[in-house]
């Protein structure tokens, strides 16, 4: 007896979501200024202070670690 096809499709959707999540979080960790420019820069009159980008880098790094751990969790539980 195999895995139902609905479960297989759902697992692929979750896998793709986690890959996109982790990729965006890694990119935001590497270049938080570009992410700010895309999401908030168009409505700002001036750039935020340097501490804003440091905090954004830390938070996005945490989200990248969460994404990586969720991607690797099935392999670690075997």
Automatic annotation (TrEMBL):
* TM segment ranges: 12-36, 57-77
Note the Pfam families from the entry.
Answer: DUF6199
InterPro entries in UniProt: DUF6199 (IPR045679)
List keywords of the entry alphabetically: Membrane, Transmembrane, Transmembrane helix
Task: Give the DUF6199 domain ranges.
Answer: 17-73
Q: What is this protein called?
A: DUF6199 family natural product biosynthesis protein
What is the species listed in this Swiss-Prot or TrEMBL entry? Cohnella suwonensis
């Amino acid at each position: 007896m195999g895995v139902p096809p609905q479960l297989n499709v759902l697992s692929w959707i979750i896998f793709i979501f986690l890959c996109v999540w982790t990729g965006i979080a890694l990119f935001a960790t590497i270049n938080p200024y570009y992410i700010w420019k895309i999401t908030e820069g168009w409505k700002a009159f001036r750039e935020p202070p340097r501490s804003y980008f440091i905090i954004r880098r830390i938070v996005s790094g945490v989200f990248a670690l969460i994404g990586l751990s969720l991607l690797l969790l099935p392999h670690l539980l075997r």
